[in-house]
Amino acid sequence: RTGARVERLPLARYTTLGVGGEAEVWTVQDHAQLLEAMEAPYRILGGGSNLVIADQGVPERVIRLAGQFAATDLTPDPHLSTSDQIVTGWVGGGVPLPGLLRKLQRLGLGNLEGTVGIPAQLGGAIWMNAGTRYGETFDGLHTLEIVTPEGARQVTPDELPWTYRSSGIPRNHIVTRARLNLRPSTPETVLDRMQAADVARKGQPKNRTPGCAFKNPTLEDGQKVSAGLLIDRAGLKGMQAGQARIAPEHGNFIVNLGGATATDVHALLQLIRERVPVPLELEYELWP
Ligand code: FAD
Ligand code: EPU
Question: pTM surpassing 0.95?
Fold first, then answer.
C-alpha cells in the first residue's frame, strides 16, 4: 500500500452546487498513490464547480489531488523565459484557480486574467478549458503532465485539439500539473484586466450553483449566442423544481435554494431542452 487516504464521504460537500451522495474518496499526494488509486474504476474530482452528482453517489473511486499535486512553483525557468515570456515551474492540478490568479496578479504576470471568478482547480480548468470572453485557460499553458493507468506523459497545448470549453483531453486522463506560459507585466495592469473580466460576472447569481448549464450554441449563420439569453426568451427564468431554480438573474444558471436534489436539477435541464427551440449542448457534467 502506498498510503493514499481512503474515506467514504458525501460528495455534496465537495461541489459548488452542494448536491451528491457518498463515494469512496481517494486523496492522493504523489504519483505512487495516484497510480494505486487508478487500479480500479475511478473518477477525478477537481473543484466540483461543474458537477451535478447523483443523490445516491457514484460507485467508482473518486480521486482528489493533494500534496505534490497541490503545490505551486512559479519560479521562472531560466532556459525558457525571455523578456516577454515567463515559463514557470510546475503548478499542481489540485491548486485552486482563484488563489493562483491572486499570486499571478501580485507578481504582475498575465495571460490567465480572463479566467478570473471561475471557482475551479487548475486541473479541472485545463480539462474543460474554462474561460470567458476575456480569455481562457489555454492562453497560459506551456506544458501539461497527464497521468493514465499506463503512467505519466508530458504534452504541449499544440498537441491537443483544444477549443471553446474543451481541452480534447480524454475523460479520466488526469492533469496532475502544468507549467504556465505567462506574460510579464505589472500588478496594476494585471489587476485592471482582471477587473474588466470580472465586470461581465456582475449579473450572475450568488447562490450555490455549478455555473452555466449549457454551452453557448453556434447558430446556422455562424454566430455564437448566449444560451442564457435563449432560456430567458423562452420565459423560463425563475422556474423551480423542488429546491432547484433557474436563476432569475441569468437563465443559464441553475441554483440550489437549499436542499435541492440531483433529480430536481435534472428536471430543470429537461424543461430547458424541451422549451428552447435551439439544440443545446450540456456544459454541466452529470455523475454518473
Ligand atoms: P470539476 O467540476 O471537479 O470537474 C469537471 C470535470 O473536470 C470532470 O470531468 C472532472 O473529472 C474533470 N477534472 C477535474 N479535475 C481534473 C484533473 N486534474 N484532470 C483531469 N480532469 C479533471 N466555467 C467557465 O468556463 N467559465 C466561467 O465563467 C465559469 N463561471 C463559473 C461560475 C461559477 C459560480 C461556477 C460555480 C462555475 C463556473 N464555471 C465556469 C464552471 C466551472 O468552474 C468550470 O467548468 C471548471 O473548469 C470546472 O473545474 P473544476 O476543477 O471545478 O472541475
Ligand atoms: N442575457 C439575457 N438574459 C439572460 C442571460 C443573458 O438577456 O438570462 C444576455 C445578456 O444581457 C448579454 C448576453 O445575453 O447581452 C450575454 O450574457 P453574458 O454576458 O452573461 O454571457 P453568457 O454568454 O451568457 C458567458 C459564459 C459564462 C461567463 C460569461 C462572462 C458560456 C456558456 N457562458 O455567459 O461562463 O462567465 O460569459 O464572460 O459560455 C460557465 O461557462 O459556466 C460560465 C458561467
Answer: yes
Domain spanning 204-283: which CATH class is it, in words?
A: alpha beta
Assign 3-class secondary structure to 25-78. EEEECCHHHHHHHCCCCEEEECCCCCEEECCCCCCCEEEEECHHHHCECCCCCC
CATH code, 5-68 = 3.30.43.10
Within a 13 Å sphere around the CA of 123, how many CA atoms are in the beta-carbon half?
28
Which residue has a Cα nearest atom 22 of ligand 1? 124
The model's pLDDT over 41-50, given as tens digits with 9 standing for 90+, comes to 999 999 999 9
Beta carbon of 147 within 6 Å of any ligand 1 atom: no
Q: What are 203-250's pLDDT values in tens digits?
A: 999 999 999 999 999 999 999 999 999 999 999 999 999 999 999 999
* Catalytic residue positions, numbered: 165
Start and end residues for every CATH 3.30.465.10 domain found in the chain: 72-199
Closest ligand 2 atom to residue 231 Cα is 8
In the chain, where does the domain assigned CATH 3.30.43.10 lie?
5-68
